[in-house]
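Run log, item B.
One chain of 119 residues. Sequence copied directly from the ordering sheet:
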Amino acid sequence: MSTDSAFTSPGDRDYPVEERDLSEEQNEHLTTSLRAVRNNPSAPPALQDLARKMLGGRLEMKDVLDDPAGYRVLTDGIAGMRESWRSMSPQDRQTLRGQVEEQAEEAAADGVGAAYRPR
């Protein structure tokens, strides 16, 4: 029996996410992203736990913000991004906007996802 496992406790499961309001492609992307977060040693433990709950079918996307731990981990992450953005120089912000626009155009050209246009 192998001891290498991404599961940290008995009862953890790894199901593909099947949110009713998402397309099959979006569900596949969400599942892949959640697995990446769960397996990323640099991700905050609370965020990894949130990913485990969603992959285990114990928490649906629509309920994430109603879950106190889910709300806390997401709002803390957003606050960190906001502070990073505020601490950037205007030149760095513009460079980042250009990179995002370029990646969005490449993704749209490859037919991946909806074309994202930052404001």
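Observations after the first pass:
- The helical segments are 24-39, 45-55, 68-87, 90-109.
- The two ends are 52 Å apart (CA to CA).
Flagged for discussion on Thursday.
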